[in-house]
Amino acid sequence: MPLSFSIVINTLNRATLLAKTLDSLRWLKYRGRFEVIVVNGPSTDHSQDVIDAWLPAIRAARCEVANLSVSRNIGICMARGDIVAFIDDDAIPEPEWLEQLAQAYDDPAVGAAGGLVFDQTGYAYQYEYSSATRLANANWRLTRPADHLAYPGAFEFPYLQGTNTSFRRSALLEVGGFDEEIEYYLDETELCCRLVDAGYLIRQLPNAYVHHKFAPSNIRNEHKITRYRYPVIKNRLYFGLKHGRAYVPLADILADNRRFAEEQWQEVESHIAAGRLPASERAALAGQVKSAWERAMARGLSGTREYITPDKQRAWPGAFLAFDKVIDAVAPKALVLVARRLSPADETLARSLAAQGHIVCLITESPDCDRVDFEDGVWMHRITAPASVRPAEAIETGVAQDAWNWSASVRTELQRIAPHRRIDAVQASPGAADTVAWPDGEWPLVSSIDTTLHTE
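The line above is the sequence of Glycosyltransferase family 2 protein; the predicted structure tokens follow.
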């Protein structure tokens, strides 16, 4: 029997994006059952209205403090699935997300698994593979999984990105879930460290894609500039004091964090000099550093921790609630439509095929940059058509440079889609030279011919 999932979304003041994330879950292709749990923080926007509109298809709760770890622990206490998967309230999973996460749990020793994360463009990766040390020094430049570092006591260990991570529920409860001292930043890293020490494996997957559509918060502004650095400075020092003292002297931990704090100062000064932050940020940062250091020292050296307790579990009762909004075909196909000049008819066809349960990608020309967006059940691939070298055969047969550029760009995009899923059919128009740069038989092709009277 397939594993059951509890998808947990922790949200705070992102009503519009939350609605899009919830809608995207309707299009997941998973053979097993999953439930959706939304934990709303002390939101002051219309987030609760969005959540209420989805009831009773989802389960919901309130978290009275702006603390992500507390909110996540509420979600864990509510969860009844075998696996608890977390996704941010500004993220969209690809259809195979749960299916590929589930495949990672083929060994009972696997305690956590997560996939790749695209940034807001849908093209560049925000996260691939990372490791961290017991002092919270991270290596984000890994080009392959660091699963081999997952062994008890490892000084360097793999961790997962919070917006695309899943955990075996029994493992979460065994280690107590998230450390509630960590309100933001290093929360999933710290949990992965404890799971590794408990003997669990961490699997970093080459798929299970999530698209992270960045939104500003009380921590970062719309330009991704960190304005509130207190939790970043505090939790890094707290992490090192909690997990590093058995490995390095206390003086080294403190020196490493002083260096980190100095880097924060340099970053703020560079933003002030460039006019991206006001000069008042200097005084704000001084206060944040002082408060962060005092709190981290007190909590990091105390040995007192706040985890999930039996009382917290009893406070959040409830039964598994299968998500009944899933759109699923009996035999879903992965279909790609190509329309350089997008028309209402193209969009209608794409939405109609998606509504039947198929995975639909629509490739069209972008006026500015390459990007991928999920709209009304359709993956919209907007691509540019840069100059591409025409082979002699194309020149001899009179293929225009512009037509070749577009066709070559479409082929490149299809090659980029193909590792995500098998492409069952591509619809393209020979009249628009969509396929002129493709070798015969590269993909199953359906050609359409548009006239003023009919489309075939």
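Note on the example: The chain is about 35% helix and 20% strand. The first strand starts at residue 5 and ends at 11.
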